[in-house]
Known about the structure:
Layout: E1 8-9, E2 20-24, E3 32-38, H1 65-81, E4 89-95, H2 103-110, E5 120-127, E6 135-136, H3 169-186, H4 213-226, H5 241-244, E7 249-255, H6 284-296
Parallel strand pairs: 3-4, 3-5, 5-7
Antiparallel strand pairs: 1-2, 2-4, 6-7
Bound molecules: zinc ion.
Amino acid sequence: MKGIDGVEVDPPLPDIRTAIIARITVPHPTNTILLRCELDALKFKEKSGLPFSSTNEGIHHACGHDGHMASLLVALRYTAKHRDQLRRNVIFCFQPGEEGKAGASKLFKAKPDLLDHVDECYAIHFMNAAYPGTIALGKGAVTALTSSLAISIEGKSAHCMMPNVGVDANFIGCTLVTQLYSLIGMKVPPLEGATLVVKQVAGGGTVAKALTASTRKKLEASIKGLIVDENEKSFAGEDFCEFSERKPSCYIAVGSAPADSIDPSNKESKFPLHSPFHKLNEEVFKTSTKIWAAIIFT
Ligand SMILES: [Zn+2]
């Protein structure tokens, strides 16, 4: 980036050294905009089958951030080349640690004045629930900020025939899970919009005992009755709100679904974000780069 004519790159920031802030400025700007993309991948093995799959074992760009980077880099090169037609100052922000690593918040800690002279912020995210050529915008918040927490419960072991002398961490854990789910609605007003998902519970297995075979069978049937398959839907997590809370901002979702990959009956993608099978339709770049160019050269 440093070698591109007309582009100034900020020195690396402390504590978030992989962040890149590049600037293209003009002598008499109408205003200043910041365009942000994410840099990080996810920690699981890529199974997309693409010839250019990740060569880093156990690391997959399953949220399309490699595509976001490519789009923004193309926009940067194009802007540098045509900067004689540019009327605004443009800051290109390549942000690491978006996937639950609080990258945006670290960025503002390292550079609190990042948006001091910025009028508007923009970000693009690809979505595989729509085909290329589709753009989605919303008024107000369109994605959620994600928080993760781990809870450990310490019990006291006892023989399963004498549960009364132990402290059953599994029982406490399960009770806690139902209480956690009740927080949405009970503590957060429905119109504020929030979800909470317990993603993993680990314990020591389940033992069901009964005094007679018929009671044991009844117990087994009741347990099976509790287990229901559900298709999980989720709020997309995003820390772009660190920008949008500070300045007027726009977050643009751009259709990137490979051909024939959306089930018409339920509109679900065969290659969704955050899946080992995730892949993009490269046609998306035609739309994403046009959007960047339209914003930059307005
Ligand atoms: Zn993402």
